[in-house]
Design brief:
The termini are far apart. Helix 7 links the parallel strand 8 and strand 9. The longest helix is centred in the middle third of the chain and has 11 residues. The chain has about 230 residues and is of the alpha/beta class. It contains 8 helices and 10 strands. The strands form 2 sheets. An 8-stranded mixed sheet has the order 2-3-5-6-7-8-9-10, covered by helices on one side. It has a single domain, classed as Aldolase class I (TIM Barrel, Alpha-Beta Barrel), CATH 3.20.20. The relative contact order is 0.14.
């Protein structure tokens, strides 16, 4: 399996853990605000072999707590389970970042205790999901299945939404709260404009409205936080 980036030391990608973050390429979404456009719209020329990743991690046993696998969308890769199995053998916690479009894979990883934390992106309310993912249409059934799997609380998880002024309204957060009612945790993430984004000219949601969004979702989920605000 090929990887296309590594952050050898992260204190922000896995709460309260010292982590290494590795990046896969390829995604079935084209979110306009995605910061990792080079991993989404094409495959970078420079890659890191799986063997090199695993060799590095062996030198970090006892130093790092966890490995975060992000992308792109990691669950698109057929070798994901095998690689995670090798990482778990070293004693690391594993966090998976996912858009939730492959519920069977998420369930299998949970069933086999191969992942210790899941962060699932919730792009928007159901009505605006397709446009927020850069698609003309989108079947939400797999996303809803992944939500249901996580709501079973068999592994720690969070739902998270990166908020964009052009895409998110307070009404959307009312609908998101109703959709995810009873969830373990929900994070409202600040959008930071970047030249790496797929679409230029997007803006962060003002903190005042982010706080209002938080209050709205708190009616449905007890643990809601702003991230990076």
């Amino acid at each position: 399996m090929k990887f296309y980036g590594i952050d050898k030391l992260s204190l922000v990608d896995y709460d309260e853990k010292i982590a290494c973050t590795i990046f896969t390429a390829g995604c079935n979404f084209r979110c306009p605000f995605c910061h990792n456009s080079s991993l989404v719209v094409s495959t970078p020329e420079t890659s890191i072999d799986e063997e090199d990743i695993l060799s590095y991690l062996k030198t970090r046993v006892g130093v790092l707590d966890a490995v975060v696998i992000t992308g792109g969308e990691p669950t698109l890769h057929k070798d994901l389970k095998r690689v995670i199995t090798e990482i778990k053998k070293m004693g690391f916690l594993v966090k998976l970042d996912t858009n939730g479009t492959n519920p069977e894979i998420v369930k299998e990883l949970i069933d086999e205790k191969l992942i210790d934390y899941v962060a699932m992106d919730i792009k928007n309310s159901k009505e605006k999901y397709a446009i927020t993912t850069g698609l003309t249409q989108l079947d939400l059934s797999n996303i809803e299945k992944t939500i249901e799997i996580l709501l079973e609380n068999r592994v720690p998880y969070e739902f998270r939404t990166t908020v964009i002024k052009e895409f998110h309204t307070l009404e959307d957060f009312e609908k998101i709260g109703q959709w995810l009612k009873g969830a373990r945790a929900y994070r409202i993430q600040k959008f930071i404009p970047s030249e790496n984004c797929i679409q230029k000219g997007l803006h962060e949601l003002e903190k005042e409205n982010a706080l209002k969004a938080k209050d709205i979702v708190l009616k449905y989920i007890s643990d809601v936080e702003l991230r990076s605000y």
